[in-house]
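G., the chain you wanted modeled:
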Amino acid sequence: MTVSVNGEPREITEGTTLDLLVATLTRAPSGVAAAVNETVVPRGQWPLTALGEGDRVEVLTAVQGG
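Predicted structure as tokens:
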């Protein structure tokens, strides 16, 4: 199935959860936020958040520096 990840289409397998998708995008242990269909999902809910066809996922990683 196809979802949008940070504005780009991505093929994922049915039943993929948000935590599994985020793990393919970043190895950062903290400083990562995710939203599905414009709703921020608390990190503890990622393993329980199954993604569906056409979902829009945004994954943001905090960056330090100046």
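Residues 9 and 50 are 17 Å apart (CA to CA).

Shout if anything looks off.
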